[in-house]
Write a structure and sequence with these properties.
The protein is of the alpha+beta class. Helices cover 30% and strands 32% of the residues. Strands 1-2-3-4-5-7-6 form a seven-stranded mixed sheet, with helices on both faces. The mean pLDDT is 95. It binds coenzyme A.
Length: 151
């Protein structure tokens, strides 16, 4: 197979990506977002919802939103495990950060479970810094870090 056929394409998500995005979500998180929430995000935030596809397979997604305080919020990002460490998560994130910049947003922020060391390392590699500890952030009682990047 040629390199071209295996190329990663980053593009805006469309409604027909729904079931493949749910697959990415279910295979990436111990406590995945319910499909109903993914559907809602696809409809409400479709202008800031991107997927990564390889040979027409959706292998990752990222979704963000503009907050009322003018910050860009990263709602969720995931890449299927067998496609990780190939730069796909970074490509998705950079695409979303560029969308934030086009909207004039000056800062991006996100919350991440303190136990999710892989994700914390990933966000640090993209220039995010831990600014706060959010105690009991998750419904199951776990703390989160607030991480911020100036755009
Ligand atoms: C976090 C996630 C999206 C990263 O996706 P990815 O495509 O593997 O990321 P990249 O290949 O672009 O990684 C970029 C850099 O981040 C860092 N990084 C990524 N995964 C890492 C890991 N498991 N351990 C340490 N550093 C890591 C590295 O510096 C990496 O660069 P390198 O591969 O040259 O060393 C992916 O691991 C994932 O889907 N995790 C499960 C879902 C999740 O936890 N999402 C975040 C919830 S807040």
């Amino acid at each position: 197979m040629s390199m071209e056929q295996n190329a990663v394409i980053i593009r805006r998500a469309v409604p027909s990506d729904f079931s493949q995005i749910v697959k990415v979500e279910l295979s990436s998180f111990e406590r995945p977002y319910p499909p109903r929430l993914i559907s809602l995000l696809l409809h409400l935030h479709h202008d800031m919802f991107y997927v990564a596809s390889v040979n027409e397979e959706v292998v990752g997604y990222v979704v963000g939103a503009k907050r009322s305080d003018g910050c860009g919020h990263i709602i969720s990002i995931a890449v299927k495990s067998k496609f990780r460490r190939r730069g796909i998560g970074s490509k998705l994130m950079i695409t979303l950060l560029n969308a934030f910049k086009r909207k004039g947003l000056k800062r991006a922020l996100l919350e991440v479970a303190v136990s999710n060391e892989e994700a914390v390392a990933f966000y640090k590699s993209l220039g995010f810094k831990i600014t706060n500890l959010l105690r009991n952030y998750y419904p199951w009682g776990e703390d989160a870090y607030l991480m911020v990047k100036e755009l």
